[in-house]
Structures are given as C-alpha cells and as structure tokens.
User: Fold this.
Amino acid sequence: MRPESLFPAFAPITSLKGCGPRLAPLVEKLAGGRVQDLWWHLPSGLIDRRYRPRIAEAEPGRIATITLTIDRHLPPRTPRLPYKILGHDGSGKLTLVFFNGREDFLKRSLPAGEQRVVSGMLELFDGQPQMTHPDRIATLEEIDQLASVEPVYPLTAGLAPRTLAKIIDHALARAPELPEWLDPAYQRQQRWPGWREALLAAHRPEHAADLEKHSLPRQRLAYDELLSNQLALLLIRRRLKRLSGRPLKGDGRLRGALEKLLPWPLTGAQRQANAEIAGDMASANRMLRLLQGDVGSGKTMVALNAMLLAVEAGAQAAMMAPTEILARQHAETLKPYCDKLGVRLALLTGRDKGKARVALLERLAAGEIDILVGTHALFQDDVVFHDLALAVIDEQHRFGVGQRLGLAAKGQRDKGGVDVLVMTATPIPRTLSLTAYGDMDVSKLTEKPPGRTPVDTRTVSADRFMDVVGAVKRKIQSGERVYWVCPLVEESEQSDLAAAAERHSSLKQALEPELGEGSVALVHGQMSSAEKDAAMEAFAGGRAKLLVATTVIEVGVDVPEATLIVIEHAERFGLAQLHQLRGRVGRGGRPGACLLVFSGPLGETAKARLKILRETDDGFRIAEEDLRLRGAGEVLGTRQSGLPDFKLADLAAHGELLAAARDDARLILERDPELATERGRALRVLLYLFERDSAIQYLRSG
Ligand code: ADP
Ligand code: MG
Assistant:
C-alpha cells in the first residue's frame, strides 16, 4: 500500500488552486495530470528582478524593478496608439506604455497620485526611460516578494507563464517531508540537500548555474530517480532468480546435429555465447541473460542452440517476437532445421483462433510440441506448457519488465523456474542497458558472420528526390529489391500513415508504368496482420520490388534480394535505428546500399552523427557515440523503445550517478534484503514515489 505521506503526490492537478477545467487539460498535456508531475516540471530559465535602481540610474536593456509615483494617465486618441502612463521617482521620469491597454484595469492597478512598483525591461525611447508592458505591477507592501528571482518554466500554447508558475507553487506547497533514504555518508560527501529541500531549491534558482543538471539539488533528484530504478530492477531480478532455476543439461545430441546441418561454421562470438548460455542453463540459478548483437550477427542460431538444449533435457522452449511478421519469419527460419532434427516446432499468433488453436494448445499441454514460437499471444492464460524451461524473447525492448515476468511464470512450479534469454538487435550502450535491464548478464555478438561488406551509406538532399527515384529504378531493373522507409512523425501514428500512404501512391505513379502493376507495395503498423503478411510476402516472393514501409520493417524481416534502402527524413531517426534499418539490406551476399534523405540544411550535430554512421559498422560504437552526441532520451527513439523515460535523470549528464546508484542498490539489498530497517522503510517510500510498486510486491511486507 502506498504510504499516506505520498497521497499528495498522486492527487490530481485539478485539486490545486487555480487549476480548473479550462487550464487543467493544458497543464496535463505539458507536465502530467498529478501533483507530482508538477514537482518534476523544473524551470528552464529564470528572471532576476532583484535589480532595483532609481529611474535615472537604471541601465537600459535590463530587467528592473522600480518604485514610482503615478502622475497621469494618457489614454490614446485612437485605439491603435498605445495607452501611456507617466510617473516619477526622486531621480527622474518614467513612461509606462501599454498597447491595447484596458483603461479600467490600468486605472485600478496604477492609480494616479499613488506609489506603485513595476518590474520589466527598461528601455530608452528618444532618450527617455520607458517600460513597455511591465511584467509585474505591485503595491509597496509586495515589493520584497516581487523583487526576487522568478523561475521560468517550459510552457505550452495557451498557458500564461505566471499562471503556470502559480499552479506549480501550489503543487510545491503540498510536497511533504519524507524520511531520508540516502546513505548519510554518501549524502554528506555529495553535499546534497534533503529531498524536499532539493525539490524546492530546484524550483527556486537564484543564478543560471542553479539550472544546470549538475547543480546539487538537481543531482540529488536525479539520483533519487536512478536509485529507485536500480533498486526496482534488482528486486525483480532477485525475484526471478529466487523462483529458483533448475539445472538443465543436454547430451548435445541435437546441438551437435544442428552444427552438422548448418552450411557454415559458427562464428567465434556465437560459440562463446552458446557456451555462456549453456553454463547458465546448467546451473541451479535461473538464467537471466541479454544477448546483444547487430542485425545479421546471427542471434537466431544462438537462440536455437539454447532451445535445443532445453529440448535435449526433455523440456520445452518458447520464443516470443514483438510482431507477427517477425514471429512468422523466426518460425520459417527454424522449422526446416527442427524438422530435420525431429524437433516439433509450432507457431502461435493472435491470428490463430477456434479449433486449430485449441488443438495446438492441447498438443502443447501434452508435451507434443517442443518449441513454440509466437507473439505476445503466448501470454494468454489458456496457453499452458507441459514443461517450459526456456523463454527466448526477441527484440524485447518493446516489452515491459512485467511481460518478461509473465512468460517466465509459465513454468511448472514443481519443476523450477524458466530460464530467460532476451535478444536485442539494438546495441544498447552500457548505461542504458543498466536502466532497462539492471545487471542482467550480457552476451555480445561483436563479430559478424564472414563475407559481409558494410552497407554503403550516403546522404542526399530531399531536393534530389527524382535522382533517388532514378537510382531505385535502376536497382530494380537489375533484378534487385528496395525498401523505402517513410518518415517517423513524432506527433501521431495517423500522420505517419498518411505520409507513407502518400509516398506509396506517388512512387506507384512514378514506377509502375515501367516496372509493372503491383511492383510497389505498402506495409504499415495499422494494417491487419493478414494485410501486412500479404505485403511482406509479395516483397519476399519478388512480386513486389519496392516496399514502402513505416518502421515496422525495423524489427528483423529478412529478404536477401533487398540491396537498397531509402530512408526519408533520416534526421528524425536515432542513429541506432538507422543502423538497424540499413542492416536490412545486403544480407544475401550482394553488397547493400543505404540512402539517407534529408530535408533542410544539416546542423553540426547531425553532420557529426552521420559521419559516424558512414565510418563504422559497429553497432555498439554507434550507440555509444549517439548517446554522447544527443543524450539518452533520443538514442533509441524512446517513443517506441520501451526504455524507461526518466523525468529527472539525464543519462548523458548523470551517467556517473547511475553507476553509483547501481552499487548503492546492491549494497542496500545485501545488508537489508527486505528493506526492513529504518532506511529500508524510507527506500520503500522512494520506490512508491517513483511508482515502482510492482517491485515492492516482491518484498516481504513489514
Ligand atoms: P540476427 O537475428 O542477429 O539479426 P540472424 O540470426 O537472422 O541475425 O542471421 C543473419 C543471417 O546470417 C541469416 O541468414 C543466418 O542464416 C546467417 N548466419 C548466422 N550465423 C552465421 C554464420 N556463423 N556464418 C554465416 N552465416 C550465418
Ligand atoms: Mg534476427
């Protein structure tokens, strides 16, 4: 149960003063719908109103807070002219200027004959001090409050800065004192304030330096978030391991036979990964291993090897892919080998319904299927294995931690836990993989199968569109096939689709007269799986020569005849994504080429990023460099990546804190495994604050 002290954090923003039905949707869009979302909405700038000169001494071009006596109002003679108000102090005169000023309002707030405080940009007009639209107008009593430093928050259209700042103030007033969860010695060494103090300080910057990610309050808040992330991952991992593994040993019969079937020798990296996995599976601990390797590095064979080990040991294995296309392709790749080895493989996707599905599930429960390949349809409750020992999860950064656990839970209780092997083609930098997977064991396929030439990668400007179409045509006329990837539009999937559909029809018009009807196909994420499969099959089978696609192809389809990939609006993709996309071509022995089409001039960072892409074919290096150049949020195209989206921590800036948080989390659980000490209980509050409730459920209550 969430502790009561955190109730304010989870209250809706509509409970805040000034955040009514009109503003709440705007605030929610900007920051989120709960009070704590406003706590994390940190200022991006500040306005210093502490400069309080006399009028004659005021420096023009600077924000000044001035006390003056109001002399006269000069309403405009025609509405287009400004409303002017004259005032003075002991040193000189000041004119206040208002365009479209409302007379009644101005007369009330700046009454003639009285003293008032105004704050805003002071300028000289014809040599006379003038202030156009003061930002703030106040009475003398309010001056101390006014003449301070105001935080400036990131905004959204329709929300006035002052309005938002006030709502955030109300949210901050609700921030509770929470028990300290940091190690006192570490906190002292870092000179970090307490949580609430840090939060308030982060919202009250006094100098530009206070806005930086390295300022002490912001570091502290980022660390809290990272610590909660690492602690939660450790708890989940410990739970998985505790579900006890089972020593799985095979006699090598199937794996040996597989090696003889393969037309090529395994690479050294594959052998090494096989050995690491076999070691994990043989141990009594549950395996939790991440298999990382570029597209085309041969992960599928490593997965098959592991699954055959499970089958040799008399158990079952499952392999889950994020899309139907990919699940099918895995099944098609693996089936011929399995058939020859006498291993029974079946495919289960969301499309299987009715009698056929029931029959398949019966065979599965009876142990008449050895390997089941599928989509998340494998999670459904009625999918019952006879004896599942290994779950392979492909490209799993699209699945959440919870889903990983879900498949692992399909093992038989009496027989021990399910080993988990996670495969990802995205070479995730160490820092990022820590946040997404915690300390999973990692096998890397750094070496690619021989005979691969790097994909020839070039950039072209969108102005040369017709040249690109010409290049596509030539490729197709020489018997090759081409992918055309359409822009990823951040705002909505709908616009992605519109762009892809439009491109599809214009390419059809440009190419089909010469290349023949049906030679340009389209596939996107909103098609039914039958439509997708039809389009993919047309392309794989060669009826379609050009496949226009949104990024659904990213996740691993294999068409050896494809040698060119055109990526439109390449500037909108992450480097790792571009690298993955280009890995789709040149897989069939013929060299591959990639055209990155850009709109508009390229900035320095964009140029530097592309240079890396042209220079290296090493996905791990690309990912590290991209992280360095752009920051974590964008590296993987977070929108789809499923990687944690930190609110406060920025891995490019706070990478060292992540390592510290990991060590801290380890030590905490070593000393206080159930978070039962005083600090442990404070850490539970931290976990709740960052909504790691699912991890808390793995603790004994107390
Ligand atoms: P990944 O899943 O890592 O993208 P795949 O397992 O699909 O890579 O392998 C890519 C291609 O390389 C497949 O066509 C596969 O048959 C082939 N392949 C795998 N291992 C080897 C190897 N050791 N030598 C040569 N080709 C290999
Ligand atoms: Mg693959």
